[in-house]
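Action item from last week, closing it out:
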Amino acid sequence: MKGKDMLLKWVQEIGELTQADQVYWCNGSEKELAELTDMMVEKGIAQRLDENVYPGCTLFRSDASDVARVEDRTFIASLKEEDAGPTNNWIDPTVLKETLNGLFNGSMKGRTLYVIPFCMGPVDSPYAKLGVEITDSPYVVANMAIMTRIGDVALKRIEAGEEFVPCLHSVGAPLEEGEEDTPWPCAPMDKKYIAQFPEERSICSFGSGYGGNALLGKKCFALRIASVIARDEGWLAEHMLILKLTNPQGKVYHVCGAFPSACGKTNLAMLVPTIEGWKVETVGDDISWMHFGEDGRLYAINPESGFFGVAPGTSQGSNPSAMATIQSNTIFTNTALTDDNKVWWEGMGIKAPEHLIDWKGNDWTPQSKEKAAHANARFTTPASQCPSIAPDWEAPLGVPIDAILVGGRRATTIPLVHESFSWQHGIFLGSIMGSEVTAAVISDKIGQVRRDPFAMLPFIGYHVADYLQNWLDATQKTEEDKLPKIFYVNWFRKNQEGDFIWPGFGDNSRVLKWITQRIDGTIPARKTALGYMPAVEDLDLTGLELDKKELEEILTVDKKLWLEEVKSIGEHFEGYGKKMPKELYDELEALEKRLNEV
């Protein structure tokens, strides 16, 4: 859609369809957010935390059925089924629209229809994109106000005639006159729909009020729809952090990293190096939009303005920058609550009190069988508050990318780090990465490994093979030596006792240092069947006391395990169908040949 007239017409149509009690246009002011928060607190939807410890912070508890992304209720409604590909759920868009129109009919009775104009990316960036989310959830408004630039700043660009992505959302719980509302309204699971229409560039979400199901600027727009736009316009919309790394001599590098949810992406984006003289600053923790600059290099912007992070496991030890960021103006969802109105979660680094209110609102003690916080409990917090935020994090043209990291959570097989032989080989590495299933998605396969190309498996808005081809095509847009180097990392190798071999967290800076030395060509590497790898002595291990034999193990290629991996990769590629690029099969064949020559 484009321009003010189309926006007004669309809002009027949705208002009539949903039969909302009133329509409210969000302006994005601090006063508006404060009044909205006051209203939610008064209605019992939210609870204020201790103002002396967590000023401006609130806690929400979701319905127990509405706690994470629901992949099996998420659809890519392309005109042709083949365009959605084998990794997406597809429904004929005509059929789906008929279903959704029936569900949205009267869905906002007794509620306010909020109109949220929003901008993805810095408002003065030529790479920013506009959207408008219609929702009946004040919780969504409050979160969108943190995660995107909402209100008048976006509306002015739309009124000037720019295109916007229409995003329609309802919790799917109309209220009859006199009916009492619940703190977290939502629809039953079989009525939940998160639908993307790639050709129309539109989104409809019904029945869920949680996270990426409801904050439609996030995964729905910034990845599923943006990946289609990126394919058509010749850029990349990716599930990647962006960090700025400065060495002791003052040289700056920018790194993007693709990791599935709950694999340390936010921790890496806010890393505090443990080696002297190095500095990490945060540009983004989750999504990267990369465009080719006039110099032929890839430049990345962070389309979001906040962090929507997993709380459990976040602590002063694992991520001090995140802990500092969430001290104020933060929305917590599904954490536990202490008796003195503070939040608590497992892995916070603070001993559990003798009594808590758990994420379901029930009494909890250390003897309780269930965890106090949900495994996917979240914090929504402004990026501008982060002590590690880079001064140029909102640079309109983005930051130049020197390296791309790919990786997942693998206890065996995958070495600590290896560098690709070429851009094509790097895309192969991104296509085969895998991780254990986490609580960020509702699944009965938690703990099992699933392959997740560039951590985009649930977020590609079109055929996965075409998506990988879009990566390969980057060499047609620029010279290969101007493209970032690609590295595969794995912080999560375990020994026979089940303990992590690599310390991770701030010590990952030691691997980043080696990566920058490889970018500069100032350190050698061993050529292995997988790629270029460091020897133990090539890593800066100053101050660490680690088992050298175990370190050598995670910097070694296990031929037997990797030949099994090759077989698994082949099956993985076959599952993506006949459109899989031949170049990736060539890389698989070359890998097997190198392994057999060892």
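Closing note: Residues 3-234 form a domain with the Phosphoenolpyruvate Carboxykinase; domain 1 fold (CATH 3.40.449.10).
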